[in-house]
Amino acid sequence: MTTQPSAPTVTTAPNPVLRVPPAAPAVAAAYFGASLAFHADVSDVAAALASDDTGFVVLDSRSTASWDQGHVPGAVHLPTALIAGQARQLLDPAVPVVTYCWGPGCNGATRAALALAELGYQVKEMLGGFEYWVREGFEFETWQGSERRTADPLTAPDASGDCGC
């Protein structure tokens, strides 16, 4: 008697989102809590800077040419390559530092944060960098004075000023 080969078993692969299952809630809480200890977003930094006492200093880790094109008002300019030699003269080790660079496609703020942490500073990275500072419509300074661009509706809250997050 001849047997027919059986049809291959078709298994439905999970969708790409769930191919790797989500972490357990406790693991996720630890991860996201840690993430907030390392990062601040542009809107939160802007809101804090608008208050009377921020409790931190903002550090622009880009080149002088980039700084001249535009920077966050009140930021300290210290390119990453100069942090080891100049941070102690420019920054109080008791004051937390928020670093930024160009934008989300650049890891310069991460490198600056690492250099500062290795020197003993408390540090966070501003997500979105200078790009999102400008895209969200916040005022910035250039070598010619202050500027502000219209907020990109894909990155900034509506007229209420509250994105709900």
Describe the overall structure:
The protein is elongated and about 85 Å long. The relative contact order is 0.15. It has 6 helices and 7 strands; from the N terminus they run αβαβαβαβαβαββ. The chain starts with 24 loop residues before the first helix and ends in an 18-residue tail after the last strand. It has helices at 25-38, 42-50, 64-69, 83-90, 108-118, 129-135; strands at 39-41, 57-60, 76-77, 97-100, 123-127, 140-142, 145-147. Strands 1-5-4-2-3 form a 5-stranded parallel sheet. Strands 6-7 form a two-stranded antiparallel ribbon. 33% of the residues lie in helices and 15% in strands. The protein is α/β, with parallel strands linked by helices and 165 residues long.
A few lines on this structure:
With 165 residues, the protein is α/β, with parallel strands linked by helices. Helix content is 33%, strand content 15%.
Strand content: 5-15%
The N- to C-terminal Cα distance equals 69 Å
Structural class comes to alpha/beta
**Sequence of strands across the biggest β-sheet:** 1-5-4-2-3
Defining traits:
alpha/beta; five-stranded parallel β-sheet; two-stranded antiparallel sheet; 33% helix
